[in-house]
UniProtKB/TrEMBL annotation:
Native source species: Agromyces protaetiae
Protein name: MazG family protein
Lineage: Bacteria, Bacillati, Actinomycetota, Actinomycetes, Micrococcales
Annotated NCBIfam families: mazG (TIGR00444)
Gene3D superfamilies tied to this protein: MazG-like
GO biological process annotation, one example: dUTP catabolic process
GO molecular function annotation: nucleoside triphosphate diphosphatase activity
Location of the NTP pyrophosphohydrolase MazG-like domain: 32-107
SUPFAM superfamilies, alphabetized: all-alpha NTP pyrophosphatases
InterPro entries associated with the record: MazG-like_dom, NTP-PPase_MazG-like_N, NTP_PyrPHydrolase_MazG
Length: 225
C-alpha cells in the first residue's frame, strides 16, 4: 500500500517555505524579493558543485536541498505577488511540458539511438521554441564564470564558423594532456597576471565580449549574403 502523498517530504518543505513567508512567520523571509535572493541562489549552486565534485553523498543531499529551497522560495514569493501569480506546480508543469517537447525521441515519433543523435537535433528544437533568437549566442548567460563562459561561447561560435583569433602566447602555451595539467597551467597564468596587477577574470570577459562581437558580425555578414 502506498502513501496518499508520494513525496511527503517535499510537500512538507513546500508548506514550511509558505509558513516562513506568511504573516506571523519570519520577518527576514517576508522582506525578500526575487532580486535579493539572487546572491543566495548563486552561492548555493556553487556549493552544490563543490559537493558533487567531492563525491560526498551527505553534502550532496544538503546542498541539493539548499538549491531546491531557493526554487521553492521564488515560487512561493511569486504566488503571493500581484502580476506574477504562479506557484511551484506551474513551474513543474512548465518544465514537464518543456522536457516532453525536447525529447520527441521518447515522447514522440522521432528516432534517436545515441546521445550524438539527440545533440544533432537539440539545437533545432530549441530554435523552434525560441524563434526570437537570431544569434547562436542569444541565451548564453553572461554571468557565468569567465572560463566556463569562454568554453560555452567558443562552442557556440563553432556553429557560426567563427574561431577565436590565435596569437603567440610564448611561455604560456600549454602542452597539457590532462585536466590536472591544464589546471596547473591556467593557475600559473592567473598568478602571472596577478603579479602584473592584471585581473584575469575581467580580462577574459573583455576578450569574450570582443569575440562575441566577431561572432555577431560574422552572422550578420552571412545573413546579408
Amino acid at each position: 500500500m502506498t502513501d496518499a502523498a508520494p513525496h511527503p517530504g517535499l510537500d512538507e518543505l513546500v508548506a514550511t517555505v509558505h509558513l516562513l513567508r506568511a504573516p506571523g512567520g519570519c520577518p527576514w523571509d517576508a522582506e525578500q524579493t526575487h532580486e535579493s535572493l539572487v546572491r543566495y541562489l548563486v552561492e548555493e549552486s556553487f556549493e552544490l558543485v563543490d559537493a558533487i565534485e567531492s563525491g560526498d553523498r551527505a553534502e550532496m543531499i544538503e546542498e541539493l536541498g539548499d538549491v531546491l529551497y531557493q526554487v521553492l522560495f521564488h515560487a512561493d514569493l511569486a504566488a503571493a505577488t500581484a502580476g506574477e501569480d504562479f506557484d511551484i506546480d506551474d513551474v513543474a508543469r512548465h518544465m514537464t511540458a518543456k522536457m516532453m517537447a525536447r525529447h520527441p525521441h521518447v515522447f514522440g515519433d522521432r528516432e534517436a539511438e545515441t546521445a550524438a543523435d539527440v545533440v544533432a537535433f537539440w539545437e533545432d528544437l530549441k530554435a523552434a521554441e525560441k524563434p526570437h533568437r537570431t544569434s547562436v549566442l542569444d541565451g548564453v548567460p553572461q554571468g557565468m564564470p569567465a572560463l566556463a563562459l569562454a568554453d560555452k561561447v567558443i562552442g557556440k561560435a563553432e556553429k557560426a564558423g567563427v574561431a577565436p583569433r590565435s596569437r603567440e602566447l610564448g611561455e604560456y602555451v600549454t602542452d597539457a594532456t590532462t585536466e590536472a595539467e591544464l589546471g596547473e597551467d591556467l593557475l600559473a597564468l592567473v598568478a602571472a597576471a596577478r603579479a602584473r596587477g592584471l585581473d584575469a577574470e575581467r580580462a577574459l570577459r573583455g576578450a569574450l565580449r570582443a569575440f562575441q562581437d566577431d561572432v555577431r558580425s560574422a552572422e550578420a555578414a552571412a545573413a546579408a549574403s
